[in-house]
Amino acid sequence: MQVKIFGQTRVVTPRGEADGGRLGGVKSRQILEILAVSAGSPVSKEVLADLLWSGHPPRSWTGTLESYVCLLRRHLDPTSPRTGGIVTVRQGYLLDLASVDVDLTTFRALARRAEADRDPATCLAIVLEALSIATGDLLADEMQAPWADEEREVLRQEMVSLHGLAASCGLALEQTGVAIRHARAALRLDPLAEGVWRTLMRSLAAAGRRAEALRAHSEVRRHLADELGTDPSRETTDLYLDLLRGAGAPGTAAGTVQPREEVRILLRLLHDAVLAVPVGEVPDGDPHWWQTAVRLGAAS
């Protein structure tokens, strides 16, 4: 049996595929989803009741919960309604992963394999296999459930790590297009992932797109300032200075950067730096300081 919780919940058995609407009702479907994200670990009846009824279960919740589980088991496997892949344990239930494959569990197993693999080509192949599973929103049938929101947040962080790993592997393999694509995918999910910004900067430089790499530094600097009130790390700043010197990454293509575009980016960076100076630190109270910033902004 396969349980798929990326996108709308589906169950695939030798008898065919059933969507979440054919699992005995909303509560039965949610029980299956909660057990699926627990990856074979037991879930107590109290926890199930708390999640199913948002902290306010009915007085007779124990009997009601058990009836939902029985209904779910019958829908999962009419030939074996006592189990249906759901095992009763002390004070709760678990999903029997020996007989049930959960797409989220498979995704996470592949992610662990990729992180442990030291060969960039093999690692990248495993990451791509994992990402091919993660299509659609996790638990798409439960977009209003707080417990599902928490699971989606955990997955978001995992996706950032996986895309960042794919970007690093792509850069190591000199596949700059792959590296740039996955770095940008990670940063769409987490604009504060500074390590991924560095991978993006190196990848752009290696592709001969140094002006874009410089722009990336400006972007990460803005995100860190706006969201955390901090500056880029020393490692990021050192990389930026290397890029300005033209030493951004091994194999950087020479002579492919459009000079006018690079000048425009540098002017924008200088503009941002001028504006970042606190009023009390303006040299000698220079009255033309802010006019300089305006001119730089217009020129860029």
Q: How would you describe this protein?
A:
The protein is of the alpha+beta class and 300 residues long. The protein has helices at residues 26-37, 45-52, 61-76, 103-116, 120-133, 146-172, 176-189, 194-206, 210-228, 234-245, 259-276, 289-299; strands at 2-4, 10-13, 16-19, 43-44, 86-89, 92-95, 101-102. It has a four-stranded mixed sheet. A three-stranded antiparallel sheet has the order 4-6-5. The termini are far apart.
Name its key features.
12 helices, 300 residues, Arc Repressor Mutant, subunit A, three-stranded antiparallel sheet, alpha+beta, four-stranded mixed sheet
Work out the oligomeric state of the chains in this entry.
Answer: single chain
Q: Strand fraction band?
A: 5-15%
The Rg value, from CA coordinates, equals 26 Å
User: What's the CATH topology name of the domain at 2-99?
Assistant: Arc Repressor Mutant, subunit A
CATH 2nd-level architecture of the domain at 2-99: Orthogonal Bundle
The low-confidence parts are 248-257
CATH homologous superfamily descriptor of the domain at 2-99: Winged helix-like DNA-binding domain superfamily/Winged helix DNA-binding domain
The first-level CATH class name of the domain at 2-99: Mainly Alpha
> How far apart, in Å, are the first and last alpha carbons?
59 Å
Class inferred from helices and paired strands: alpha+beta
Percent range for helical residues?
A: 55-70%
Distinct helical segment count: 12
Which geometry do the CA atoms define?
A: elongated
Q: Give the strand tally.
A: 7
Order of helices and strands: EEEHEHHEEEHHHHHHHHH
Q: Which strand order does the major sheet show?
A: 3-2-1-7
Largest sheet: number of strands, sense, barrel closure: 4 strands, mixed
| Average pLDDT taken over every residue | 88
